[in-house]
């Protein structure tokens, strides 16, 4: 059985930083792409950052480019999202997901296994 568990969310002031972590078990982690997504209040779930199986290829939403960094450690079955210079618009529930493919999956449908999410709140 596959489990995906996020951690690291919290409340931070604008301009601050957070590091989210996601551990996936029950699958061959080094064979799958991983992604971070978020759902802001009143909005659809959206891609934040994606990473391929080896960590060489990444993709970022325009709104987070230059501020967020996705990385992974295949020895620990863990993917990270370093979030710097946070803005109130970054307030959302952040989800981690494992793809069914080793490459970057640019559609939410590419992701089979989802975590429960972790809340990030950015105050002014």
Q: Can you give keywords for this protein?
A:
single chain; 124 residues; mainly beta; 7-stranded mixed sheet; 11 strands; 50% strand
Describe the fold and architecture:
With 124 residues, this protein is mostly beta strands. It has no helices and 11 strands. Strands 2, 4, 5, 6, 9, 10 and 11 form a 7-stranded mixed β-sheet that branches. Strand 4 (34-39) and strand 5 (46-51) form a beta hairpin. The radius of gyration is 13 Å and the shape is globular.
Q: Helix count, per DSSP? A: 0
Task: Please give the number of β-strands.
Answer: 11
- Oligomeric nature of the chains: single chain
Order of helices and strands: EEEEEEEEEEE
Rg over CA atoms, rounded to whole Å, is 13 Å
* Fraction of residues in H or I helices: under 10%
Instruction: Estimate the global geometry from the Cα principal axes.
Output: globular
Span between termini = 41 Å
Outline the low-pLDDT stretches.
Answer: none
Mean pLDDT: 97
- The assigned structural class equals mainly beta
């Amino acid at each position: 059985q596959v489990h995906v568990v996020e951690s690291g969310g919290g409340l931070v002031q604008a301009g601050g930083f957070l590091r989210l972590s996601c551990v996936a078990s029950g699958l061959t982690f080094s064979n799958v792409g991983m992604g971070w997504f978020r759902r802001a209040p009143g909005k659809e779930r959206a891609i934040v950052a994606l990473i391929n199986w080896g960590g060489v290829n990444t993709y970022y939403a325009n709104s987070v480019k230059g501020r967020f960094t996705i990385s992974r450690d295949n020895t620990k079955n863990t993917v990270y999202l370093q979030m710097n210079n946070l803005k109130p618009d970054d307030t959302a529930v952040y989800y981690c997901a494992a793809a069914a493919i080793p490459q970057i999956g640019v559609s939410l449908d590419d992701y089979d296994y989802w975590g429960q999410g972790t809340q990030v709140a950015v105050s002014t």
